[in-house]
Amino acid sequence: MSNQKKQSFLGGAAILASAVVIVKIIGAFYKLPLNNILGAQGKTYFNTAYYIYNVLLTVSTAGLPLAISKMTSEAHAQGRDNEKRRIFRTAIWLFFGLGLVGSLLMFFGAAQLAAFMNNDMARLPIRALAPAVFCVCLLACMRGYTQGQGNMKPTAVSQVLEALCKLGIGLPLAWYVLKIGMSLDTGAAGAIFGVTIGTVFSMLFLTGYLLSHRDHTDALDVPSSSGQIMKRILSIGIPITLSNSAMSIINLIDTKIVMGRLQGALHLTEAEASALNGQYGLAMDMPNMVASFVYPVTMSLIPFAAAALAKKDYAGADRSISSAFRLIAILALPAGVGLSVLSTPIELLVLPSQRADALAAGPHLRILGFALIFICIMILTNAILQTYGKERIPIFTVIAGGVTKIVMNYILVGNPDINIHGAPISTLCCYLVICALNLFFVWKYSPQKPRYLQLFAKPVAASALMGASAWAVHGFVERALRGLGVYTANAAGVLAGIAAGVVVYAVLVIALRILRADDVRSIPKGETLIKLLHLK
To answer: Which of 59, 333, 353, 414 has the fewest CB atoms nearer than 10 Å to its CB?
Structure first.
């Protein structure tokens, strides 16, 4: 990789990473108020529609855009402009068909899909989200095409635009619908309709961009046939799609089982089951939001390992992978411990309008905080195995974890003494199983075996001390300020606890030399951080 290409890659990765951060921040401003508007019961209607949408979306767009990006990148590097155009024209019709089928299935089969999920009241949100499948399929194709030419800006802008529409349209619409006295399922449909509008505007933006940046240069290359291109897209994309869609399908079945067991084994009404399941969903939002920030770290570090492996520089690959492990440990462990020790106070902070739901979601988050650690390690190890050319292994490890989750949910949620508390326990065990298997296979296929004890021992100790300090400071501040009001005292306690935890952890990371110079050298402003923190 030349210095110019390396800088181009890092610049593109930085653009996408920045877009992800912005989108996730906007998403937090959307999701947290929405949870207060809908409550636990409305949250279940929203999540049911979104899980169905996510399965259709993952199946149709998870691996195929990467195939388009890879093929377009190869043609672009070789100066084969006719090949690039043929790839795009072939792919856009493939995605048009996939999107149309998915949207029609969601719209006209909404009642049947809701019944399958043991949640009849979710049919209106499912129908409101149906057009988004078509739009996102076309978006995925266009994003893959532009990224394949090394242009990350259109993707970044379209992602931010999509998130802004979701926030600016979906949130006010949900609030207004419930304010005028309409039902919770209609409010959930209003909220999720913002997602649909966001995909429409994002698709229109990218369509306009491609039309205004059409390449009219004459080229002499003879492109491959549409059949050859289609075959190659599918051969590259399908294995990645299977790996990525397995967890989405398992989550869908998992929700169906939880709702079914709450109604069938415990004899709850659909509304009662939706409320309990929604409390678990409210708790799951926090780990999901934190885990989403792991992807940019993985994206920016793993390509260096791939480049080193290609040159048979096994020591260099080991350094990159060890750095990735250390960074994930440094980020994921304190986040998971922090969510666990401050679980109920955090839920009370972010759900001021739904205090009863916050109190119920707190115990779930206590367990899911630890699950977050394994979720982050799973994301990293999946990427490492793909770097080693072992793309199929994550498919089987995810299935193993998913089966664990489904079986445990069936047993635990159906137990009257455990009921919905079985859902976070099964989630923790699911990701623990995936992590254990992934770590074994990473160790097995690494040319230089990773030393897990050395990588994780110090971050675990530092995170434990950080968690204790955050818990103690929260308790002290909350009791000291109780006279100012319950919510104010808790909010101040949470913020003070987090601040204390950050300071304690930062000091321990430097004092124990957990972070090394190699760990941050490849990220933007890495050299500045090395000098600032005196890393070696």
So the answer is: 353
Instruction: Identify the H or E element spanning 213.
Output: none
Q: Which pLDDT value is given to residue 380? A: 85
pLDDT over 50 at 32, yes or no:
yes
Buried b (16+ CB within 10 A) or exposed e, 76-85: beeebbebbb
Distances, alpha carbon 278 to alpha carbons 167, 339, 371, in Å: 21, 19, 18
Sign of CA dihedral 168, 174, 177, 179: negative
Residue 378 makes CB contacts below 8 A (sequence gap 6+) with 431, 434, 435, 438
DSSP letters, 496-526, are HHHHHHHHHHHHHHHHTT-S-HHHHTTSTTH
Report which residue type is found at 253.
I
- For the record, the structure tokens of 390 come out as 């072992």
- d(Cα 326, Cα 307) in Å, to the nearest integer? 20
Task: Determine contact, residues 502/463, Cβ cutoff 8 Å.
Answer: no
DSSP letter, residue 119: -
Under a CB-based contact definition with an 8 Å cutoff, are residues 373 and 350 in contact?
Answer: no
Going from the C-alpha of 424 to that of each of 45, 297, 326, 371, the distances in angstroms are: 19, 26, 26, 8
- 3 state SS of 390: coil
CA separation for the pair 335, 87 (Å, rounded): 42
- The region, left, alpha or beta by phi > 0 then psi within -120 to 50, assigned to residue 344 is alpha
Q: pLDDT digit string (tens) for 219-268?
A: 666 677 778 888 887 877 777 777 667 767 777 888 889 999 999 899 99
Rounded-to-integer distance, Cα 252 and Cα 151, Å: 34
Please report which residue ranges of 351-416 form alpha helices under DSSP H: 355-387, 393-413
Rounded to an integer, what distance in angstroms lies between the CA atom of residue 428 and that of residue 434? 10
Residue 143: count other Cβ atoms within 10 Å of its Cβ.
23
Q: How far is CA 324 from CA 280, 300, 321, 359, in A?
A: 31, 9, 5, 36
Q: Say if residue 490's pLDDT is above 70.
A: yes
